[in-house]
Amino acid sequence: MLATSMSNLDKRTSRRYHVAIESTLVRDDESMPALIINLSLGGALAQGAFDTPLKIGECVDVSFVIPDLVRPLTVAAEIRWVSQAAPGSSCTIGLEFVTGFPTEQTWALGRFLERQQQA
């Protein structure tokens, strides 16, 4: 089953880059591991096996570490699209960051992305 809003893909303002970054998504008190497979300053594409289905429009906190920073980057994100066959199966989600990063983190993330392959 694929639920998507493809018109939003045309509205991207930041380039996406191929990455493989372990991350944590937090919804309410539920913490879910995920792998970010592409990333930009404005959003991410992540994969994971989530026991509880994720829904378009839902907000989650996303935390991940990049080499130039000691502390994890944490940002609120809205789920823009979801592809999941069944609960507990592999799922791919499109995330739009709804809060920005502090200046130091934005700079570090930009430098990190410059060293990655463009998606």
The biggest beta sheet is recorded as: 6 strands, antiparallel, barrel
Number of separate helices: 1
Q: How does the helix and strand content classify structurally?
A: mainly beta
- Overall pLDDT metric: 87
The low-pLDDT segments are: 1-10
Q: What share of residues are in beta strands?
A: over 45%
Number-wise, the strands total 7
- What would you call the shape? globular
Please characterize this protein's 3D structure.
This protein has 119 residues and is mostly beta strands. It is built from one helix and seven strands. The protein has one helix spanning 103-114, and strands spanning 2-3, 17-27, 30-39, 43-49, 59-64, 73-84, 90-97. Strands 2-3-4-7-6-5 form a six-stranded antiparallel barrel. A hairpin with a 5-residue loop joins strand 6 and strand 7 (90-97). The longest helix is centred in the last third of the chain and has 12 residues, at 103-114. The two termini are 24 Å apart. The model is unreliable at 1-10 (pLDDT under 50).
SSE layout and pairings?
Blueprint: E1 2-3, E2 17-27, E3 30-39, E4 43-49, E5 59-64, E6 73-84, E7 90-97, H1 103-114
Antiparallel strand pairs: 1-6, 2-3, 2-5, 3-4, 4-7, 5-6, 6-7
Concise account of the structure shown:
The protein has 119 residues and is mainly β. It has one helix spanning 103-114; strands at residues 2-3, 17-27, 30-39, 43-49, 59-64, 73-84, 90-97.
